[in-house]
Amino acid sequence: MAALALLPARALLSGAGRALLPARALPAGPGPCPRRGCGEAAALRAAGFSQEQARRLLALQPRLGPEQREAAAAQLLLLGLSAEAALALLERSPALLRLPTERLRERAEELRRLGLDGGRLERAVRRSPQLLHVPRKRLRAAVRLLRERCLFTAEQLREVLGTCPAVLQEEPRTLHHQFQYAYFRMGVQQKEMVKARLFQTPFAELRNRHIFLERRGLYETPHKGQTQISNPKLKDILQLPEEDFLASLAYSTPEEYEVFKKLLAREEEEKEEEDVDALYTEDDDDLDSGGSETARE
């Protein structure tokens, strides 16, 4: 140690003496951004999303590759959605981010061909983001039913799709059943169905309200287009809140309506049981008949 102390200062700057001096920090060279995802955030901001919107978007499906996320978001912007609307849609249905971009584009083009053109498509997707997942075959089946079996005109169909886009997700049999009930049982024409937005109302609610009015003598199925009373408009039956429906159309109380719905549900259960019993009875008769003929032979 004494020998080390006798070394001149110049010696401390070379050889082993260098290890005794603190190392100088080297300037940082170019490299990846220290914040994870900052490059992706910059790309989203360039597409039109704010910093806060980009942050929220990056929080969705965090394991998703940046190219897929950016492509899906850009495709939604191309549909006419604003950045906030596109983000809200993805927050409600984040699985859209995993949908291949080409399929997303094809679904949008198919919806346009079916009548959801212009702003209708943007509104429909905002209301029912699941439309972008529905297979093309199912979309076409719903439209074909509404045009060919329910006989809506092209303009009426566009209005139905614009106001009730969820019809494209329904099974055709379900749509047809609701249409037939309104057309034959209630005597309502297609034009009035469109104005009333028939397919926005669940079938059970439509049936409950109609039969309740009917049993109170306030609705009558037209015969050859004629009725003995003035039926309320379908639009009022369906779109009025329940409280207003009961007060202004049914002239009843919520308690009476609740009792009626329970009784109607019980009637349906009993009817289903009778139908099943009748079916088994027919099967037994067929077997007995077949057994008798075999015995005679």
TrEMBL record:
Q: Which residues form a coiled coil?
A: none
Q: Does the keyword Transit peptide apply?
A: yes
Keyword Signal among record annotations: yes
Which keywords appear in this protein's UniProt record, sorted alphabetically? Signal, Transit peptide
Where does the secretion signal sit in this chain?
A: 1-19
Regions of biased composition (Acidic residues) lie at 269-288
Q: Which GO terms describe its molecular function?
A: nucleic acid binding
Family affiliation: Belongs to the mTERF family.
State the protein's name.
Answer: Mitochondrial transcription termination factor 4
Query: What is the native source organism of this protein?
Result: Hirundo rustica rustica
Q: What is the lineage of its organism?
A: Eukaryota, Metazoa, Chordata, Craniata, Vertebrata
